[in-house]
């Protein structure tokens, strides 16, 4: 089975790919705070078009946390968000051009930030980083989507 890539930018409508599995989407946006709600919107649109409404809550929170982390630590002017679904797995990845590795921090109760990757670790089946790209996987079957 081949991947069906779709390049869209904020503000463009995602066209569905009927019957195409796995599904894939790659979007770039400026490394700026406004990118976070744009990527949530685009990710939500993709999941709805692909019939994965059951994953929306978890996936949108993960997208927010990954993109926020990338915006805060980006080494490039743009970040790239990849969303793929196949074999009952939703794969989310954000590439920020940074050579640093994302890590889970244990923020104190008074801390105003520092919980993003802990949220990613808790909500995803698996997560990792290879420097510029941080990714996580959510199993659709556990959420009732497929």
What secondary-structure arrangement, pairings included, does this model have?
Blueprint: E1 23-30, H1 35-49, H2 56-73, E2 78-86, E3 89-95, H3 116-123, E4 126-129, E5 133-139, H4 140-143
Antiparallel strand pairs: 1-2, 2-3, 3-5, 4-5
Helix pairs in contact: 1-2, 2-3
Domain Histidine kinase/HSP90-like ATPase: 30-127
Organism: Streptomyces boetiae
Keywords: ATP-binding, Kinase, Nucleotide-binding, Serine/threonine-protein kinase, Transferase
What would you say about this model in short?
With 146 residues, the chain is of the alpha+beta class. Helices cover 31% and strands 24% of the residues.
Major β-sheet profile: 5 strands, antiparallel
Structural class: alpha+beta
Query: Which shape, going by the Cα principal axes?
Result: globular
Distance between the termini: 17 Å
Question: What would the CATH topology be?
Answer: Heat Shock Protein 90
Number of domains: 1
The level 1 CATH classification is Alpha Beta
Domain Histidine kinase/HSP90-like ATPase: 30-127
Protein name: ATP-binding protein
GO molecular function, one term: ATP binding
Organism: Streptomyces boetiae
């Amino acid at each position: 089975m081949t991947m069906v890539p779709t390049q869209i930018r904020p503000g463009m409508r995602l066209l569905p790919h009927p019957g195409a599995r796995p599904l894939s989407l790659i979007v770039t946006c400026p490394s700026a705070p406004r990118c976070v709600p744009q990527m949530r919107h685009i990710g939500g649109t993709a999941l709805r078009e692909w019939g994965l409404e059951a994953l929306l809550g978890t996936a949108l929170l993960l997208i927010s946390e990954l993109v926020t982390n990338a915006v805060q630590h980006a080494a490039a002017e743009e970040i790239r968000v990849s969303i793929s679904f196949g074999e009952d797995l939703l794969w989310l990845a954000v590439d920020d051009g940074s050579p640093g590795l994302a890590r889970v921090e244990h923020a104190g109760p008074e801390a105003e930030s520092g919980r993003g990757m802990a949220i990613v670790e808790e909500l995803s089946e698996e997560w990792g980083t290879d420097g510029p790209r941080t990714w996580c996987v959510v199993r659709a079957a556990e959420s009732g989507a497929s």
